[in-house]
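Bench notes, afternoon.
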Amino acid sequence: MYKALGFLFVGLASLGVFLPVLPCTPFLLLAAACFSKSSKKWYNWLLNNKTFGGMIRDWEEHRCIARRSKNIALFSIITFGGYSVFFALSNLYAKVGTCLILLCGIFVVSKLKVCKK
């Protein structure tokens, strides 16, 4: 079950690379956690992956993310979330709910430690 979840999370993270509203990093961290419990082979593949490996190692070893990743995350939340609130949603309750979710996301991302490199 953990291996299947790991592949699901890798797929979602891969989509997150191209879709600005879907976060990449949390899904990668979930995939790494699942693979670490189910498959050493796939866990090592993820850690040695050119695109994703550094991000996972930084989190596992230092509990930090790169400044660029943090800035991209905040920019994406504000830009695309703001677009949804101001242009795509017409219901007041949906706008307020979306704002609350966006504020939670901004709060969580802003509290993440930046790696010192």
